[in-house]
User: Which sequence fits this backbone?
């Protein structure tokens, strides 16, 4: 399919949009060392795929774990994908979905802010050093009054001023690198 898309339009970048789970070769990097039917490496080796992507939802993927276990998983997940995008695939990486659900047991806004800061710091350090990962997109920005679309991961800036400040700071830091 990617070859067909590129035959029609060579002027736009193409990516797969999967979570980033690994196959047999690196399943130890997956949540719970499980195989989930996709393979980050083989899927992204397709020549027409221009950049790699990962998602990150530790509150779903390793539910019931404490904040420290989730933080360790987050760091390992990001670093393994940066490493593989750099050295194996030789393609840029974007963290295209991440979040912490307000519906998860024990949710706190402070934990969400810390989670965003952890991800933003990893991405910024990688981008600053010229590594594969140069950006991230949280799931999902919403405006006030969109209550019917809330899934627990939404960020409504005027309801979360501390999170909004963290997002703004990251935007300024990454923009300053260019």
Assistant:
């Amino acid at each position: 399919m990617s070859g067909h898309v590129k035959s029609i339009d060579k002027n736009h970048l193409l990516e797969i949009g999967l979570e980033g789970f690994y196959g047999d070769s690196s399943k130890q990097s997956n949540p719970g060392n499980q195989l989930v039917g996709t393979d980050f490496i083989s899927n992204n080796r397709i020549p027409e795929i221009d950049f790699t992507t990962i998602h990150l939802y530790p509150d779903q993927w390793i539910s019931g774990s404490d904040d420290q276990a989730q933080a360790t998983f987050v760091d390992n997940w990001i670093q393994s994908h940066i490493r593989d995008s750099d050295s194996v695939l030789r393609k840029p990486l974007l963290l295209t979905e991440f979040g912490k659900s307000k519906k998860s047991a024990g949710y706190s806004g402070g934990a969400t802010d810390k989670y965003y800061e952890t991800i933003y710091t990893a991405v910024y350090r990688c981008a600053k050093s010229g590594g594969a990962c140069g950006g991230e997109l949280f799931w999902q920005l919403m405006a006030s009054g969109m209550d019917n679309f809330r899934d627990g991961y939404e960020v409504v800036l005027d309801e979360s001023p501390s999170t909004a400040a963290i997002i703004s700071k990251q935007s300024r830091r990454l923009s300053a690198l260019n």
Remarks:
- The chain has a mean pLDDT of 92.
- Residues 67-89 form the longest helix (23 residues).
- The chain has six helices and five strands.
